Every structure is written in structure tokens, then in C-alpha cells.
Amino acid sequence: MSLRAARRAVALGFALVVCVLRYWSMRLRGPITLEQRAQWLQSASRTVLASLGIQYRVEGEPPSEGIVVANHLSYLDIAIFSAIMKCFFVAKAEISRWPYFGEAARSGGTLFVDRSSITSAESVAAEIGERLALPVPVLFFPEGTSTDGSSVLRFHSRLFEPAIQAGAPVTAAAIRYVLADGSEERDLCWFGDETFLPHLWKTLGTVGFIAEIRFGEPRVYSHRRDAADQTREEVVAMRESNLVLR
Fold first, then answer.
1. What gap in Å lies between CA 54 and CA 209, rounded to an integer?
2. Angle CA(51)–CA(55)–CA(56) in degrees, nearest 5?
3. Which of 34, 84, 98, 128 could cross-link with 162 by S-S, CB 3.0 to 4.6 Å?
4. From CA 203, how far away is CA 168, in angstroms rounded?
5. What is the CA radius of gyration of the chain?
């Protein structure tokens, strides 16, 4: 396991350097638009996943606008979703302070929210509202935290409000990990008090896994609580059903 983890750590290091070089090459050509940031994040995520041998399978159509909400298993979800589709993320404020990854998220157009602050949530909601005018969806994890996958927590509704006000579509998405050696999904999830670097090292040492992602149909809602409750039910149903992959 340690040898496998070391090899992947080296591959990841090279991939991150390539991503930085691509970003600065883009910066040198002039100001970067939000859409270009989302495009860079998608390219970077695909490079990182390829370096780690992480595969993904998709059912349904990834949306190109509105809001996307999904269950949350790990920081890996961010790279997986952004590899599949151009999008902007809403992430907890702590991530902005992570070495490298915080700056990478910021460079990719991520919005950071302090979940303990109503003012911060309102500010981010206003920014989401502005970005809904772009042909790039905003993706967030309304559980508010990552879990072990045994259940889908209640969805917080505050960040649904911009879509309600704009009449923008909301798409539910479900993600699931399938480990190559038959281990339980929770063995790869990042939850509880586990710290980032030990979990990353454990992940680098796994035999391998496939992320299965399923998208529902975009829907427009009249009330944010209805949107939160109904998309959660949809995610639960998609997680529980067998995935028919295209």
C-alpha cells in the first residue's frame, strides 16, 4: 500500500505542477473570465484524476446552467464533478486556507461560505444569483458536510434561494464510490474528525475505485424548502437504485 501511495503521490505532484503552469499561461494572456476559470478547473480536475487512476461513470445529462445539488462523500467529489462538467463550487470557508488546494479552488471560481455566519451565507447567495446569468452551473453540497455515505443528511435550504428568485433550474445529482477490491464505500469517504493528509495518503494507497454519478432532470421550484426536500429525496432514490450507465 505505501509503495502504491508513494507512486501516486509523485504522479499527483507532477499533475499539480502541470495545472499551475496552465493557469499561469492563461493569466499571462490577459484577464481571466469566470467561464475561463471554470474551464481551467475542469481541465485541472481531469489531469488530477488521470494521474491517480480515478475513473468515473455518468448517467443522465450534466446541466449547463442553474444550480446543481449533490450528496457529499469527500473532497474527491469536487475533482470528480468538475471533471464531468464545467461548474462553480460553493465550499466551506476552511478550504480557502488549505495549502495549494485552497488557492486552486479560488482560481477556479469557487465561492467560499462561512456556514456559521448568516451574513456570509447571504453574501454568497447574492453572488450565486449573479452567476446564474452565466452558462455555467453553480454546484453545492446542501448537507453542509461530507458523510460516510450511510445516509443523506437533511438539505439546508438557504443557498437554494437565488434559483427560486431567478426561476432557474435546480438539478439533483448523486455520487457513489465503488471500490475495486469490494471494500465498503465508507472506507474512502472523508468524514468525522479524520484529518486531510492522512486520509489523502490512505486514498492514494487504495487499489482503485470508480465514482458513479447520476443526474436527475432540471426542475424549477417556487419555494426553497420544497426544493431542498425534493432534491434530497431524489438524491436518496438515485443512490439506492441500480445505475444504468451510458
1. 6
2. 135
3. 128
4. 36
5. 17
Q: How far is CA 239 from CA 132, 140, 168, 199, in A?
A: 27, 17, 25, 23
Tell me the pTM.
0.92
Classify the C-alpha dihedral 69-33-37-146 as positive or negative.
negative
Least confident of 7-16, 108-117, 159-168, 235-244: 235-244
Contact (Cβ atoms closer than 8 angstroms) between residue 93 and residue 112:
yes
Distance CA 61, CA 156 (A): 24
Quick: pLDDT tens for 110-123: 999 988 888 998 99
pLDDT at 13: 94
**Distance between CA 169 and CA 221 in Å, rounded?**
8
Set of cell numbers at residue 50: 488521470
Non-local (6+) Cβ contacts of 30 within 8 A are none
Q: Give me the mean pLDDT over the 145-153 stretch.
A: 94
Rounded to whole angstroms, the Cα distance separating 138 from 235 reads: 17
What is the CA angle 96-108-195, rounded to 5?
A: 35
Q: Cα(226)–Cα(224) distance, rounded to whole angstroms?
A: 5
Query: Can you tell me which residue has the cell 493528509?
Result: 197
* Secondary structure (3-state) at 66: coil
Tens digit of each residue's pLDDT (9 = 90 or more) over 204-242: 998 889 999 999 999 999 999 999 999 999 999 999 885
Q: Which three cell numbers stand for residue 190?
A: 472523508
